[in-house]
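Troubleshooting: if your tokenizer reports a length mismatch, compare your output against this known-good record of 398 residues.
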Amino acid sequence: MPVADAPEDDDVRQTYNFAPGNNGLVYRAIVPEYSPGQRYQEGEGDEEEIEGRGSPNGEIPKETQYKLQAMKWGLVPFWTKRNPDYGSVMKTINARDDSLASSGGMWHTMKQKKRCIVVAQGFYEWLKKNGGKEKIPHFTKRKDGQLMCFAGLWDCVQYEGSENKIYTYTIITTDSNKQLSFLHDRMPVILENGSDQIRTWLDPGRLEWSKELQSLLKPFNGELECYPVDQAVGKVGNNSPTYIVPVASAQNKNNIANFFGNAKKATEGREEKVEVQREKLETNEKGVNVEHGSDDMRETVDHSSTEDNAPLPAPPSSTPKSSSKRGHEVVSTQYDESPKHKASKIKDVKEASIGHLSTGIPDMASTGKLRSATSNGTKRSPVKAGDGSHRITNFFNK
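Known-good structure output:
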């Protein structure tokens, strides 16, 4: 549909939790201030909109022009003198199609001269269970992904003592189609985008309500998608793109099934990584050649008697060498376990355990004398009787 005028980006913001009282996007025809043969009942409510596009004599432009406009959801009639409370606005967020069929009523002026299209991606409705104690939010959108065009009515009001003009709108509802009958008995009137239905609905030359206009208000016969969504959408202050994602979808991070599914995938990934590492380890143990980079500097020795450049093992020595590990010497000596050799075995072990320490103390076994660990070689003073000193062993022998 053509657009001759549109609001600034700041006037209308994208939201995933649109509530009554917010400014929504409305598509309507640009109409003159006066209709043919009569003046608008609301007087100067639309002066600035028709500036340069109409004339007081009631002439309608040859070519109809359309505009996108930001309006507040919840229609306030032009005759309202004071700003209504929120409860009163909630009563006019929707207009029943059957209420438009009868003459008169609060919608009489709007349905003849102020018809519009409300643009949205979809709408929410709550499925009631257990006698209304449990409410499950559902999101409904077109299956082809196009925007929804709801049939609506708009009006302009200027309160007493105020210079500001406030534009508001309502969405027309009808009976639910078979697809949504499980959810609710009512649904918005959805018109096809760019269709003759919309042109007829917005035609500013149709100044009287007719059966043709009334026939447009019927259940949608196209394909829709409807599915449960996050309960958080029930709070007006919340806003998130996840509110239009199905609860059972893999894209929904709040789904408990997805939580365990992602955990399982992560575990399988770790197990696969461990398996790959184990296979690499087994491959290395079987002796696979390892290529080194040019930066790896290692000395090699050329052996003419071998087929490669690997160093040859050292020839076995006639004299066995003792080895050392973690500061403890291992002596590879065979001992005869007969009683006559037990003393020499102990002696050998003592000599080995002393000789490997780097303490700066001379090896006393080579001089034929052993140094006591509890005496420094000086004579001990004799213990005098009666001075109160006794051997510590006497205490335990008592």
